[in-house]
Amino acid sequence: MRTGLLGGSFNPAHGGHRRITLFAIDALGLDEAWWMVSPGNPLKTKAGMAPLAARMASARKQARRAPIRVTAIEQQLGTRFTADTLRHLKRRYPKREFLWLMGSDNLAQFHLWRDWRLIARSMPIAVIARPGYDAAAMTSPAMAWLRRYRVPAASVRKRGRWSAPALVFLRFDPDPRSATDRRKASPDWAAAYAGASPRDAVTHRSIGLGNSQGNRA
Fold this sequence. Notes:
CATH class: Alpha Beta
CATH topology: Rossmann fold
Domain Cytidyltransferase-like: 5-143
CATH superfamily: HUPs
Shape: globular
Order of helices and strands: EHEHEHHEHHEHHHEH
Strand order of the largest sheet: 3-2-1-4-5-6
Region (Disordered): 195-217
Largest sheet: 6 strands, parallel
Strand content: 5-15%
Catalytic activity: nicotinate beta-D-ribonucleotide + ATP + H(+) = deamido-NAD(+) + diphosphate
Enzyme class: transferase
Distance between the termini: 25 Å
Keywords: ATP-binding, NAD, Nucleotide-binding, Nucleotidyltransferase, Pyridine nucleotide biosynthesis, Transferase
């Protein structure tokens, strides 16, 4: 199974997440994608972070009828950093071929993530363009190192067995939607999911109410 991994706060999930994920699945020939809803992000402020269960529920709503699984597996693994999470996933699911998906906003600060070169060596990375972030991404310290590993999407799609490091840029009509705008428009959005206990689509465990602290870097 070729599986794309898109990590984030999903605070809340929105149609932009769905659109870029479906585009990546098609462009890269993926079987499915996992939305890894992070318990938290050390590179983002904790203020305004909704409970994990509410963010999971919003993601499940956006993922309906799509080859997208919503998971909080990082919380269950007890990993704090993405590099550790990916190592555990590759060990737990050896028959899957994973590819890391991220927006150009994350590439711009990728060099701040712990063991970011190790992440790049562990699986191919596909970067999805985001309005306003492309210039910072292309001039980032991480891009200076990754540039030599840039490959076209077609080579990843056709490859029998993926290798890494490999960097793919995916460009399509920009989607201006963002979780920040959603929160501004509806500050109390999480109230709609009060008491939610969504089921993890990967581990099949129920995600109850809990704190929002954790990883993603």
